[in-house]
Structures are given as C-alpha cells and as structure tokens.
Amino acid sequence: MTFVVTDNCIKCKYTDCVAVCPVDAFFEGPNFLAIDPVICIDCALCVPECPADAIFQDTELPADQLQYLALNEQLSQEWPNITELKAPPEDADKWNGVVDKLPLLER
Ligand code: SF4
Ligand code: F3S
C-alpha cells in the first residue's frame, strides 16, 4: 500500500504534507509533488495536512484519479527529495479546486 498525491495538488503545491512525513517520502517537481510508494509507510499523517485534500490511500483513490498511482511511482524516481515546508505558488488558492489539471503538470 501507499498514499498517492492526486490532481488537485497541481499548481497548488502547498507542501504542508512534507512537513509531517516521518520518512521523507515526498519528491518535488515544478508544480506537483509525488510520493515514493516504496518509502511511504502508510501512516496517513499527510492526508489531513493538505489544504487541497489531494492525498489518498491507494485503495481509496477516486476512479478518476487512478492514473496518479503510476504517476507518483514514476515521478518520485525522477524528481529530487523535498523535506521542508516552502511557500506555495502565489496563485495556489486560485487553483485549489480546479479539476482536471493533469495537462498543466510540468515535468
Ligand atoms: Fe509520508 Fe505517511 Fe504520507 Fe506516506 S502516508 S507520504 S509516510 S506522511
Ligand atoms: Fe500538494 Fe497538498 Fe502536499 S497541495 S504539496 S499534496 S499539501
């Protein structure tokens, strides 16, 4: 099992999730974070921390978010580790709740 960052993180990237992860399982791209499923210990601490409600357990992923399971696995191998909270994009709140942001994901 693992936890998965989904669509609503894109262009929000609040990083509150990073601050509570006990095993540093988050990896940072330009406008999205990914969880390494091998590192994640399924503690669920990150879920309530996300202001965008973007993190789900893999077994509870909404049907339209299933593609993010493979995407987290892949992108966490490509991106650098992030271990500390940082300022979100200035327009993060504007993008919180906008649906289907996958075409806007930067790699
Ligand atoms: Fe880290 Fe726990 Fe979230 Fe996994 S579920 S990414 S271990 S805080
Ligand atoms: Fe993204 Fe939520 Fe973390 S918006 S960076 S999953 S706090």
* Overall tally of domains: 1
Shape: globular
Which strands sit side by side, in order, in the main sheet?
1-4
Note the total helix count: 3
> What ligands does this structure carry?
iron/sulfur cluster, FE3-S4 cluster
Name the CATH architecture.
2-Layer Sandwich
Task: Look at the helices and sheets and give the structural class.
Answer: alpha+beta
Q: What CATH first level would be assigned?
A: Alpha Beta
Radius of gyration: 12 Å
What's the arrangement of secondary structure elements?
Elements: E1 3-5, H1 16-20, E2 26-28, E3 33-35, E4 55-57, H2 67-78, H3 92-95
Antiparallel strand pairs: 1-4, 2-3
How would you briefly describe this protein structure?
With 107 residues, the protein is of the alpha+beta class. The chain has three helices and four strands; from the N terminus they run βαβββαα.
Which key features would you list for this structure?
107 residues; alpha+beta; Alpha-Beta Plaits; two-stranded antiparallel sheet; two-stranded antiparallel ribbon; 3 helices; globular; binds iron/sulfur cluster; binds FE3-S4 cluster
Q: How is this structure best described in words?
A:
This protein has helices at 16-20, 67-78, 92-95; strands at 3-5, 26-28, 33-35, 55-57. By secondary structure, the chain is α+β, with helices and mostly antiparallel strands. The protein has a two-stranded antiparallel sheet. A two-stranded antiparallel ribbon has the order 2-3. It is globular and about 30 Å long. It starts with a strand and ends in a 12-residue tail after the last helix. The mean pLDDT is 98. Bound molecules: iron/sulfur cluster and FE3-S4 cluster. The site of FE3-S4 cluster has 14 residues, from α1.
